[in-house]
Design goal:
This protein is mainly alpha-helical. It is built from eleven helices and no strands. The protein is elongated. The two termini are 27 Å apart.
Length: 287
């Protein structure tokens, strides 16, 4: 009997712990890689931005890992500059979407039936519109540029997160401590500030990280078709748009490395979001 009790846990029992460790490890590596990109842009300085016509259109080599563009700028450094710019644009835009989603969810759950119906109508209307077309119209209407892209992305990415937060708060309204606060005469505004907002912090954090890939991809898409960031900026969309004129001439590296870097950044944010979800979801502790 003692031998049986001393046996190590079976493989299926250890599987959730192994999956958890792998997910957190991948998220950590992804976060460190993104931090390295941001730090590297400061180390490179103007390298990759200023032209050097003596090194035009060089193929990838040890001196230029990703080759050079039509103005002799190092594509590896230029791609890192573009990723850093996309990061800050995505951060501001995703943060704006999270704030909009949080406010609408609080209004829907604390403002009464009419407010809830109004927010539900806004969610359904926003989700029913062609997403990318709406992005183009807003960016074009605001004149293009960095500010226009940030506003366009921020005001179009809140519906799904708002629906999730609203459902979470509707369940929370039935909690005993919320009902006790109501019996003591606390207003819904007070309850929202002291009970609802602290409860939403993990969901808001995960939502912010998971909105990042969408914000970055849509920023790159808008810039690629000419409705986004200014061509003078080393944005990923600008790099991909410029590369289209040279791909037919065999300059494959001009499009490959920026596109691959964009894909890796999106996957990195997805990995970080999965790690945060694992850490903030209490149900994961039961697996």
């Amino acid at each position: 009997m003692s031998d049986i009790l001393d046996l190590p846990p079976s493989a299926p029992d250890r599987a959730p712990d192994g999956h958890r460790i792998r997910t957190l490890a991948v998220a950590t590596v992804a976060a460190l890689a993104l931090a390295a990109v941001l730090v590297s842009t400061h180390l490179y300085g103007r390298y990759g931005i200023d032209a050097d016509f003596s090194t035009r259109l060089l193929e990838p080599s040890l001196s230029h890992l990703a080759g050079t563009d039509q103005l002799g700028r190092d594509m590896f450094a230029r791609t890192l500059h573009g990723l850093a710019l996309s990061f800050w644009v995505g951060l501001i835009a995703a943060s704006g979407s999270v704030v909009i989603a949080m406010l609408l969810a609080l209004v829907a759950t604390t403002g009464g039936r009419l407010a809830d119906e109004a927010v539900s109508f806004l969610i359904d209307a926003a989700m029913g519109l062609p997403h990318f077309v709406l992005l183009i119209l807003i960016s074009f209407g605001l004149g293009g540029g960095t500010t226009a892209v940030i506003i366009a992305v921020a005001v179009t990415h809140w519906p799904r997160l708002t629906r999730i937060l609203r459902a979470e708060l509707l369940q929370l309204r039935q909690a005993e401590f919320v009902q006790a606060s109501r019996h003591f005469g606390k207003s819904w505004i007070c309850i929202g500030r002291h009970h609802f907002l602290p409860h939403l912090v993990p969901q808001l954090l995960v939502g912010l990280v998971l909105l990042f890939p969408h914000a970055i991809l849509h920023e790159a898409g808008l810039t690629f078709i000419g409705f986004g960031l200014e061509p003078s900026n080393p944005a990923i969309g600008v790099l991909l748009s410029d590369s289209m004129r040279y791909l037919s001439a065999g300059k494959w590296w001009l499009g490959l490395f920026p596109g691959l870097a964009l894909l890796l950044v999106v996957l990195s944010f997805d990995a970080i979001g999965n790690g945060l979800r694992l850490l903030t979801d209490p149900r994961q502790e039961q697996t």
